[in-house]
Design goal:
The chain is of the alpha+beta class. The protein is built from ten helices and 13 strands. A four-stranded mixed beta sheet has the order 1-8-9-10. It has a four-stranded mixed beta sheet with strand order 6-3-2-11, with helices on one face. Helix 1 (18-36) packs across helix 2 (75-90), helix 4 packs across helix 5 and helix 7 packs across helix 9. The longest helix has 19 residues, at 18-36. The model has no long low-confidence stretch (mean pLDDT 95).
């Protein structure tokens, strides 16, 4: 039996964190290529460091690169322009990392023919999974977003500070990290026991100065009464944070997979999302698992739900489905009933069915690269489609 009273902690990092800069660049490349060819194959990794951005990975697509590995005219210039625009949007105009001045190296190349044969549809063979692996989805009714409170509040803090910075507060700079520890009673979040916030700032500010700037914004995004006189605050505990972003620490795509998902409240299959087109089940199947788990909780079938799906490279049909309601299931719809029926709600959860059901072959990914891929509001253009709760009635009908 799981414990009902405990402390739990999650962290988030801002759009200006070096790893998130790398994620944003990689997903910007995905969006650029999908805007040219909705069925482009993209696996883009990014390295960022002091005034340097390096791209590496494998690609394929009409109007992008031909089967001989030759770039279409002008595409390399478009890539560089899109990457620089992404860094400018984040806000980096610093001596050690400036959107207009960093050295740019593009080492993207053609996708392996061996992978292409396994993944592509041909004859009677459906499109196969882009790799083997296990993917998880999770939902909990402890926040309106059906996300773990520790992670949702950590994200909310940094999103608010980014909004303040983009609105013109030059005292705050792009790199930041947050961490929230919450006391749970009877399985429900009741209060924050500690809050940690480290943010890059303009020269000359003390930790006390930074605290005076950020604390009102932090309190504004937390539930009323969630902090009290016993809450421990650590704001810029190192005392100074003027050198940040890729100039302060190298960044690499895919290193913040727990921040991207459930803050440690759920298992993780190990695969990153950013830089990958939707044929890669690391991304698309993880989105499908979240979609299904969220709909289970939204339907009132459980307070918490974890779903695991597994795949074999080149094989369309999932190898397994596992549903865990963590002892919170309600009514007659059991885990076994869900395991038997839930994949049928999304066409069997083949890679093609997931892409088509969720509309994933669109340039909708750069927006996912910071503040979590989950717990977001679905966009009119199809972004965050996996956050919809349009399966609720069909799930209730399983009773």
């Amino acid at each position: 039996m799981s414990r009902s009273s405990f402390l739990f902690t999650s962290e988030s990092v801002s759009e200006g964190h070096p790893d998130k800069v790398a994620d944003r660049i990689s997903d910007t490349v995905v969006d650029l290529f999908l805007s040219k060819d909705p069925y482009a194959r993209v696996a883009c990794e990014t390295l960022t460091t002091t005034n340097l951005v390096v791209l590496a990975g494998e690609i394929r697509g009409n109007g992008i690169m031909d089967t001989a590995g030759e770039w279409a005219p002008g595409v390399q210039d478009e890539i560089e322009a899109a990457v620089r625009a992404a860094v400018r949007d984040i806000g980096y105009e610093q001596t050690g990392f400036h959107w207009e001045k960093f050295e740019f190296i593009n080492r993207l190349h053609g996708q392996s023919a061996d992978i292409a044969v396994g993944v592509d549809a041909a004859g009677n063979k459906d499109e196969g999974a882009g790799d083997q692996g296990i993917m998880f989805g999770y939902a909990s009714n402890e926040t309106p977003e059906l996300m773990p409170a520790t992670l949702q509040y950590s994200h909310n803090i940094l999103k608010r500070l980014a909004e303040v910075r983009h609105a013109g507060d030059k005292r705050l700079e792009p790199d930041a990290k947050s961490q929230v520890t919450i006391q749970y009673e009877d399985g429900k979040p009741v209060r924050a026991t500690s809050i940690v916030l480290s943010t890059q700032h303009a020269p000359g500010l003390s930790s006390a100065d930074v605290a005076a700037i950020v604390k009102p914004h932090i309190l504004d995004v937390l539930p009323a009464g969630f902090t009290d006189e016993n809450t421990v605050w650590h704001i810029n505990p190192t005392g100074i944070f003027e050198i940040g972003g890729p100039d302060g620490d190298a960044g690499v795509t895919g290193r913040k997979i727990i921040v991207d998902t459930y803050g440690g409240a759920s298992p993780h299959g190990g695969g990153a999302f950013s830089g990958k087109d939707p044929t890669k089940v690391d991304r698309s199947a993880a989105y499908a698992c979240r979609y299904l788990a969220k709909n289970v909780v939204a339907a009132g079938l459980a307070d918490r739900c974890t779903i695991q799906i597994s795949y074999a490279i080149g094989v369309a049909k999932p190898q397994s489905i596992h549903v865990d309601l963590h002892g919170t299931g309600k009514g007659s719809v059991t885990e076994a009933v869900l395991e038997e029926n839930i994949l049928g709600l999304i066409g069997g959860a083949t890679p093609r069915a997931i892409r088509e059901h969720l509309g994933l072959n669109k340039p909708i990914y750069a927006r996912t690269s910071a503040y979590g891929h989950f717990g977001r509001t679905p966009d009119a253009d199809g972004g965050f489609s996996w956050e919809k709760t349009d399966l609720v009635d069909r799930l209730k009908a399983l009773a």
